[in-house]
Amino acid sequence: MKDFRIRLLIRVLLLAATLAASVFMFGHPNMIFAAGLTSLFVLFQVAEIYRFTSQTNRKLTRFLESVRYSDFISGFAADNKLGKSFKELNEAFNEVLEAFRNARSEKEENWQYLNTVVQQVRTGIISFDHDGNIQLMNANAKRFVNVTNLKNINELADANPKLFAALNEVQSGKGTLYKTNDFLLTIQCTEMRIRGNTVKLLTLQNIQTELQKQEIEAWQNLTRVLRHEIMNSITPISSLTSTLREILDQEMTRTEKDYELKSEAADDLREGLATIENRSKALIKFIDAYREYTSLPQPKIKTVMLKDLIEKTAQFMRQELKKTNITFSTSCSSDYLTIQADAEMIEQVLINLVKNAMESLLQKEEGKIELNGKYIDQSVIIEVRDNGPGIIPEAINRIFVPFFTTKKTGSGIGLALSRQIMQMHNGSLTVVSEPDKLTVFTLHF
Question: What percent of the chain has pLDDT over 90?
């Protein structure tokens, strides 16, 4: 800075001397021409002082323009000779530009890394702005939509109108299914605000392979249960039929006009036929339960007040609970909570869960059942709690399998029906159990 001040002082003194000489010359008529030339030199000196003193402003303007236009290649070192302060200022500018260069390089590296990850994931990813302009689209998304070069999402309206409708109809925070000959896609949507613009991010995941595995496993479980139940009925019927035929062959005698059967053999025959009848009725009941499970009607969705639904279920169950020593309580975190549901079908689920809890508590002295409605994590949930014997870990993963039951008189269809009803409402039914402590069935909407 010392050099800068000295150079500026020299220029000011020289300007003062030139002004004095110019004034002196204007006072002598014979020096008018020289005075004019001196005035031009004064103007030149003023312009030079202005240029010299405005170097810092020009340097700052150049620095800001470099930042504005992301020009981080330029450097500052030309006027280091003007003094230590200029050198330090130049070094500071250069350090800031280097920091910007590193930040941009790191940003580009992160973008390349993210883009590589996005391109490698099995999930299809598409993002587009409010006008439909595609901002990001990975290879799997192109494969799912069967378009290799998509610049605007609206171009799908002609190429694949059904998928275009599905992508536009899905709401933020929700999902939908879309099926083609080759894929079964689950489409999830998220909306974000980026620099004041709304960006829609869609994920497309092919669940067909996983779903087929689950279907095979489900059919294996169902077939295992069906085989068990049917064999439990068919085996004794077949055995008894053979035994009764032997009784008829050995104990029945022919007379002149009729057949005679000893009273003891007749009793055995009557008992065997009764057993066959009972097992046949049990098999018919089992088949009716299967038909009920496979022929649920579509729910009639309406807005339902959660508190009214809980109170109606409680009113229905209180008469049965009065015959027991079980304490039954209900609660709802808000009088204004609502769900979109078929009230009768959800009542059926709640009644079934409360009945199951009641049956598990019949042998307990201080049994308790709670029916609670809550709003947690932007979801409405209904809990059915009891302090009964609970569910053993070996059975908890199978209790929703149709016809699987841990009760002697159960059909094994109630919980399977309840979960199916919740799935038809785009919800879920889950269970958590600690044996001899607590069991909680939770309905998520």
Answer: 1
On whether the CB atoms of residues 136 and 119 are closer than 8 A, the answer is no
Fold of 302-444: Heat Shock Protein 90 (3.30.565)
Tokens (6 digits) for 253: 């005698």
Q: Sorting pLDDT into bands at 50, 70 and 90, what band is 79?
A: low
Does residue 126 contact residue 142 with C-beta atoms inside 8 Å?
A: no
Residue 107 pLDDT level (bands cut at 50, 70, 90): confident
What pLDDT, on the 0 to 100 scale, is given for residue 388?
83
- In the block, residue with structure tokens 């008469």: 319
Please state the rounded mean pLDDT for residues 70-85. 60
The CA-atom distances, in angstroms, between 413 and each of 164, 288, 347, 402 are: 39, 11, 16, 5
pLDDT of residue 1: 45
How far is residue 346's CA from residue 334's CA, in Å, rounded to a whole number?
19
Tokens at 6, concatenated: 């000295």
Residue 300: closest CA among 348, 342, 349, 347: 342
User: What stretches of 51-133 adopt beta strand conformation (E)?
Assistant: 124-129
Locate the domains of the chain by residue range.
2-103, 122-206, 211-294, 302-444
Fold exhibited by the domain 122-206: Beta-Lactamase (3.30.450)
Phi, psi of 125 (to 5 degrees): -130, 130
